[in-house]
Automatic annotation (TrEMBL):
Topology versus the membrane: Peripheral membrane protein
Organism: Sinisalibacter aestuarii
InterPro entries named among the record's database cross-references: Flg_Motor_Flig (IPR000090), Flg_Motor_Flig_C (IPR023087), FliG_a-hlx (IPR011002), FliG_M (IPR032779), FliG_N (IPR028263)
The Flagellar motor switch protein FliG middle domain, residue ranges: 139-211
Keywords: Bacterial flagellum, Cell membrane, Cell projection, Chemotaxis, Cilium, Flagellar rotation, Flagellum, Membrane
Regions annotated as coiled coil: none
Superkingdom, taxonomy of origin: Bacteria
One Pfam family here: FliG_M
Localization, UniProt: Bacterial flagellum basal body; Cell membrane
Residue intervals of the Flagellar motor switch protein FliG C-terminal domain: 241-351
Family the UniProt entry places it in: Belongs to the FliG family.
The name this protein goes by in its record: Flagellar motor switch protein FliG
Amino acid sequence: MTTALPAPFDDPVPLAGPGLSGAATPRLLSRRQKAAIVVRLLLAEGAKISLATLPEELQAELARQISTMRFVDRVTLKAVIDEFVAEIEDVGLSFPTGMEGALTMLDGTISAATAARIRRASGVTILGDPWEVIAGLDPDRLLPVLEEESTEVAAVLLSKLKVSTAAALLGRLPGPRARRVAYAVSLTGSIAPEVVERIGRALAEQLDAQPPKAFADGPVERVGAILNFAPGATRDEVLEGLDAEDAAFAEEVRKAIFTFANIPDRIDPRDIPKITREVDQAVLITALAGATGDLAPAAEFILAAMSKRMAEQLREEMDNLGNVKPKEAEAAMNDVVGAIRALEAAGEILLIAGDEE
């Protein structure tokens, strides 16, 4: 159980305690001393106390106060605890401390854009461990930090992430940059803890200040997804226009596009049975029968990956179907592509990278 301390007691308050002769005599305890007594008792009872959100100076003062105290008699302890319990019982409702506490409480209730705007306007800083905040972010948001910040900062960031996440991010960096950052990790052993915390706080506030994105996917993925299901003539015309405007962007879009013609290059033959089970057989036959010219290798690839009996049966159905109208063939092939994309999104299959040998 985590226990949160209430507001400080009034100071000073006379408490009864035994004097040198053993008789009860009034004593004065500061609110810091009372807090130290309560914390000491709770810790002795095994309670987990949430004090990390307190300002650092108050945490330090509490530690200092505990270090100066020695013994407290039972009468004084009982008086402090009685006052502590009475304080808790009088609390009807408690609110979080500060704007960051309020925003944390309202997380999921107000929009992320509103929360970010409030933080910027109020100058709110991240409370608690900033590295916990950073570790919970999408790795895609961390990649620009590794690309743009100094190698020392990038090395600290990698060192504070899970090994799997750090390895995935390192693999997305260009070779020379990845080598420099990896070498810088070897030099982080002598960095002082307070420096690491300051770096984490600065990065957390920097990442928190980034405006939320309107789209989950980048422009390359969005254009590629649109062109995936566009008519072939439209797709070719758009790509030619993109080549004239921005050849590099056009090349990235080409890598993101997956069409029926890409099946032999980007699909593992062992995944073909899984794909064909997701497509209505009549649609599959139409797609295979309509795959002529440059698309014929894709149809042959699919048939070759099936059992011999199934492939022969489909070839008979294709012969019986005869000529297929181009629009019907394209619609059927788009259905096959849609099934492949759905299986990929569900993690059932993996597409081979477009530039992979």
